[in-house]
Amino acid sequence: MENITVIGGGAAGMMAAISAAKSGHEVLLIEKNEKLGKKIYITGKGRCNVTNACDFDEFQRSIVTNSRFMFSSLRGFFNDDLMAMIEEAGCPLKTERGDRVFPVSDKASDITKALERILRELKVRIRLNTEVKELIKRAPSNSDSEGSFEIRCEGKTGKPEIYLSKNVIVCTGGLSYRTTGSTGDGYRFAEEYGHEIKEPVPALVPLTLLENDAKDMQGLSLRNIEIRISPIRDEKATIYSDFGEMLFTHFGVSGPVILSASSYITNALRDGERFVLHIDLKPALSPEKLDERILRDFSENINKNFENSISKLYPLKLIPVIIKRSGIDPHKKVNSISKKERERLISVTKDLSFTITGTRDFNEAIITQGGISVKDINPKTMESKKVKGLYFAGEVLDIDAKTGGFNLQLAFSTGYAAGRYAGE
């Protein structure tokens, strides 16, 4: 009988196995895929934004759901601990803009290889191509006073396999990137033992827009812009704001600031709420400074039509939308454009707005929002409050954060806590 069995070989699962083995336990790691860390390979566009190097307070502010629950596990294993572990395992790291941490090689596979080296050194047993079908808590006996778990699996050949374990750590992920094996198995295991499941929804996911002119800008990437999300019923209110990069697509918008924004509104969207996306194309310029800039551009193109005079101010794909939204005749000579017309142009530039109608589905979501309610989980140990010896870690829990390496750190920190305390 194993002392600790970890189900799921992603970020949380590998770290749980490492932490448990470092605590002196015999550990079995079961993974349904043909290799460990399959989702890690595709994070950060194949580069793996493994964590964020910001300070503790800023990290806490970047957690969208259940930040207070994460306090203990982050204190126990934070970004500096993770970075030291990975670098000691032979994978040097670098910190880029926004405190995002990547392997120097820009290869996500190097992160997985580093963790695999640690697993091998700690003699963790690994079973690949093995899917857990049932997780059964056995009744206590004379030789087993607290009861153990029977883990019924199906191997690559389709033959049944059964493992017995005193403690089980479930790290099966959420529902995003289903091709990596995230099919919601952990929710089923938890529900069978009476845990509440917060409805899983796509998060860090592109947004769909109502207006057709958004589609006209498909492929347009905007940098150094500021966004603000407001409810359609009160456009002066701010649900979320951010500065950075975004991208127009055939259905709406994506990019770092959009993905982070989605996590703050996805549940409300599911409930029928509608929101407005406000884009400030020139956040560094006040309306007065922007007017000066427009007048300067006009003076350099004094005999040109309006449509041919603003190419220095806006990207090519954006110009037709700006013209349409400003209501200025594209063929009007710039020397006859009125102050009132310039004010409309400034208004559109500082607040290019679109109606958000929804999100894309799990196939395009980076993470899952929702999952096992943290009310049922001990925040220090990750042990179930309902079943002795059963632990949960990573995305299977109802925890999530913004983009920038925060979500992987949540997985590593909860995995580390579960492995550390399992079997005590």
Assembly state of the chains shown:
single chain
Query: Termini, distance in Å?
Result: 16 Å
Low-pLDDT stretches are none
Tell me the major beta sheet: 7 strands, mixed
Helix content: 25-40%
State mean pLDDT (0 to 100 scale). Answer: 94
CATH fold descriptor of the largest domain: FAD/NAD(P)-binding domain
Rg over CA atoms, rounded to whole Å, is: 25 Å
Overall CATH architecture of the largest domain: 3-Layer(bba) Sandwich
Overall number of domains: 2
**Number of separate strands:** 20
Q: In the CATH hierarchy, what is the class of the largest domain?
A: Alpha Beta
Total helical elements: 12
Give the percentage of residues in beta strands.
Answer: 25-35%
Output the CATH homologous superfamily of the largest domain: FAD/NAD(P)-binding domain
- Structural class estimated from helices and strands: alpha+beta
Shape, principal axes of CA atoms: elongated
Structure explained in plain terms:
The protein is an alpha+beta fold and 424 residues long. The protein folds into two domains: 2-201 and 370-421, 3-Layer(bba) Sandwich (FAD/NAD(P)-binding domain); 206-360, Helicase, Ruva Protein, domain 3 (Orthogonal Bundle). It is 28% helix and 25% strand. The chain is built from twelve helices and 20 strands. The protein has helices spanning 11-22, 56-61, 71-76, 79-88, 108-121, 185-192, 256-262, 266-270, 287-300, 319-326, 339-350, 406-421, and strands at 2-7, 27-30, 51-52, 63-65, 93-96, 100-103, 125-127, 131-137, 149-154, 160-170, 197-203, 207-209, 221-231, 240-248, 252-254, 275-280, 352-359, 367-372, 390-392, 400-401. The strands form five sheets. Strands 1, 2, 7, 8, 9, 10 and 19 form a seven-stranded mixed β-sheet that branches. It has a six-stranded antiparallel β-barrel with strand order 12-15-14-13-16-17. The protein has a three-stranded antiparallel β-sheet with strand order 3-6-5. A hairpin with an 8-residue loop joins strand 13 and strand 14. Helix 10 crosses helix 11. The protein starts with a strand and ends with a helix. The model has no long low-confidence stretch (mean pLDDT 94).
